[in-house]
Automatic annotation (TrEMBL):
<keyword id="KW-0963">Cytoplasm</keyword>
<protein>
    <recommendedName>
        <fullName>Phosphoglycerate kinase</fullName>
        <ecNumber>2.7.2.3</ecNumber>
    </recommendedName>
</protein>
<comment type="subunit">
    <text>Monomer.</text>
</comment>
<keyword id="KW-0418">Kinase</keyword>
<comment type="similarity">
    <text>Belongs to the phosphoglycerate kinase family.</text>
</comment>
<dbReference type="InterPro" id="IPR015911">
    <property type="entry name" value="Phosphoglycerate_kinase_CS"/>
</dbReference>
<feature type="binding site">
    <location>
        <position position="120"/>
    </location>
    <ligand>
        <name>substrate</name>
    </ligand>
</feature>
<dbReference type="GO" id="GO:0004618">
    <property type="term" value="F:phosphoglycerate kinase activity"/>
</dbReference>
<keyword id="KW-0808">Transferase</keyword>
<feature type="binding site">
    <location>
        <begin position="363"/>
        <end position="366"/>
    </location>
    <ligand>
        <name>ATP</name>
    </ligand>
</feature>
<feature type="binding site">
    <location>
        <begin position="61"/>
        <end position="64"/>
    </location>
    <ligand>
        <name>substrate</name>
    </ligand>
</feature>
<comment type="pathway">
    <text>Carbohydrate degradation; glycolysis; pyruvate from D-glyceraldehyde 3-phosphate: step 2/5.</text>
</comment>
<keyword id="KW-0067">ATP-binding</keyword>
<dbReference type="InterPro" id="IPR036043">
    <property type="entry name" value="Phosphoglycerate_kinase_sf"/>
</dbReference>
<feature type="binding site">
    <location>
        <position position="337"/>
    </location>
    <ligand>
        <name>ATP</name>
    </ligand>
</feature>
<dbReference type="GO" id="GO:0043531">
    <property type="term" value="F:ADP binding"/>
</dbReference>
<dbReference type="Pfam" id="PF00162">
    <property type="entry name" value="PGK"/>
</dbReference>
């Protein structure tokens, strides 16, 4: 069993430097944080340590800078948001383990926080080579000086075997942060012992990534409601023409297999009955609602794209959600970033809010979709900070950042 953060606090942290791996991977519009959910979720552990007198050093990544310093991916906007929200002093380093990070780490006073620059600016963070990652982990650990400790609290990164997530845990006394603990508790309940009916809503654009999750949910979920970009591979598997919509042709056979297996396993796969079909991928594109039997045709013709589920589908999905006792939702139903294609996602969110079910929302875009559509976190049972991590957990995969802390 992983050691809990509270054990570290009970041992006494005053004066000690504690490295915390947090998830500050927020969406940005230039230097503006458009959804600070992950910063807010990271705050309790950072403040808990600082209040106990620790000198807290936060490691986090932002986006995929590919191992190079790229100002576009600076952690600074996320760090500044943390500084605004925190009730303890927060400083930001201009490098990961360079002179500035070392100087500022050395200068920390009890109860102060230092945020290191984007750990992925260092190519060793994500290296496949154990020795390279280990060398970075050694340098990160050295920032703590004598008697340091490590707290893993970045649920959104626990599926990565990265230096700041995995290797570091073997170099310092390692503890599990409260956020990771809570995420694992909630997801374990959903996977192992859901109250039934257990309804899963899947959407989004990463079709092939998410098909593996569907595979694992067949036989576990009572119903799988499918929307978003992935639905067109299902509709095509049923013989419908989908025009220029997202389609993974090489997955058609796999999807046909799912449809057959689901029928035998008692998991109902519920597909849309209508689709909002647009002339092109643009907010102001002409669009119309078409029945799935006949998506291609009408005014839009054969080159159009399905960008949202239609209103009849939204009502069908909402009924299923209202009857559920557990709901897991990953992936928006349409291109919610554009008003014209946000109605399906909004309808699913409204149905979840109205239901009594225990609800879990996983996925970075799904979480920012509900917030940007005007819902609050409190309206949902649990908004997971992890997209890929929550899906890999549901797939039953081992998560390196969890294993490293002692599962
Ligand atoms: P999450 O981050 O919640 O796991 P994904 O990253 O898989 O979700 O997908 C989110 C993206 O999917 C959104 O940007 C949304 O615009 C896009 N999307 C949803 N439906 C469609 C569709 N029908 N066609 C193209 N893109 C879609
Ligand atoms: Mg996403």
């Amino acid at each position: 069993m992983a050691h809990a953060l509270d054990e570290l606090i009970a041992d006494g942290v005053a004066g000690r430097r504690v490295l915390v791996r947090s998830d500050l991977n927020v969406p940005l519009d230039g230097v503006t944080v458009t959804d600070d959910g992950r910063v807010r979720a990271s705050l309790p552990v950072i403040e808990k340590l600082a209040h106990a007198g620790a000198r807290v050093i936060v490691m986090a990544h932002l986006g995929r800078p590919k191992g190079q310093v790229d100002p576009k991916y600076s952690i600074a906007p996320a760090g500044q948001r943390l500084a605004e929200l925190a009730d303890v002093p927060v400083r930001i380093a201009t490098d990961v383990v360079g002179q500035d990070a070392r100087d500022k780490a050395a200068a920390l006073a009890d109860g102060e926080v230092l945020v290191l620059e984007n750990v992925r600016f260092d190519p060793r963070e994500t290296s496949k080579d154990d020795a390279e990652r280990g060398a970075l982990a050694d340098e990160l650990a050295a920032l703590t000086g004598e008697n340091g400790a490590y707290v893993g609290d970045a649920f959104g990164a626990v599926h990565r075997k990265h230096a700041s997530v995995y290797d570091i845990a073997h170099r310092l006394p390692a503890y599990q942060g409260d956020l990771v603990r809570r995420e694992l508790e909630v997801l374990t309940k959903v996977v192992q012992d859901p109250e039934r009916p257990f309804v899963v809503v899947m959407g989004g654009s990463k079709v092939s990534d998410k098909l593996a999750v569907i595979d694992n949910l067949i036989g576990r979920a009572d119903a799988l409601l499918i929307g978003g970009g992935m639905v067109f591979t299902f509709l095509a598997a049923q013989g419908h023409r989908v025009g220029g919509s997202l389609l993974e042709e090489d997955q058609l056979e796999t999807v046909k297999g799912y449809l057959e297996r689901a029928a035998d396993a008692g998991t109902e796969i519920v597909l849309p009955v209508d689709v909002v079909y647009a002339e092109r991928f643009a907010a102001d594109a002409p669009h119309e609602t078409r029945p799935v039997e006949d998506i291609v045709g009408g005014q839009i013709g054969a080159s159009g794209l399905g960008l949202d589920i239609g209103p009849a589908s939204a009502a069908l999905f909402a009924d299923r959600i209202k009857a559920a006792r557990t709901v897991f939702w990953n992936g928006p139903m349409g291109v919610f970033e554009m008003d014209a294609f946000a109605a399906g996602t909004r309808a699913v969110a409204e149905a979840i809010v109205a239901s009594e079910a225990m609800s879990v929302i996983g996925g970075g875009d799904s979480a920012s979709a509900v917030r940007n559509l005007g819902f609050t976190d409190e309206q949902f049972g649990h908004i997971s900070t992890g997209g890929g991590a929550s899906l890999e957990f549901i797939e039953g995969k081992e998560l390196p950042g969890v294993v490293a802390l002692g599962a």
